[in-house]
Amino acid sequence: MSHIVTIKTRLTDAAALAAACRRLRLAEPVSGTTQLYSASAQGLIVQLPGWLYPVVVDTAKGEVQYDNFEGCWGSQSELDSLLQAYAVEKARIEARRGGHSVSEQALPDGSIKLTIQVGGGSVSAIGGAA
Amino acid sequence: MSATGQVIEVTIDPKGQSTVQTRGFIGPSCRQASWFLEQALGERTGEQLTPEFHQQESTPQRLTQRP
Which sequence spans correspond to the domains of chain B? Predict the structure, then answer.
């Protein structure tokens, strides 16, 4: 091991967001403006399961706007799943772009591990969604 | 393991936070190798260097005999 870096996910890639929605079997993101209770938001709109209002992703800022009224109008775990799926898809896209091979593994704690072979060149999945 | 033995592992936890680890790199080259991923995924919140990071790449020793 050489170094370890922790990263807070920022949603900046529309293609990775669309892939994350497909992975979670959600409707594709739609570009537009929508109402979040008392405020409106513009960006890529994603409807999460059980959420009263959609979440809106601003890819220019990498931020997600939402109003789930502290969990009463939608479970935080659904948004967390979207963030996780986005990070997985974004990492896979970037690895492929760099010509590296990727394997994917679902871990018992709910994490997803990607192993990127530098200079590999193909993609496979182990125990996780392709 | 790749032909070069160099691997980047990305673990994404259930809340969407990522941890990027490099293996098989000697010295600071690991930073260059994983930079594209770190930058693409978001904002760095921490970094930990491992002993390999401080190792120098070995250069072959050559002995020459003078006539």
Answer: 12-44
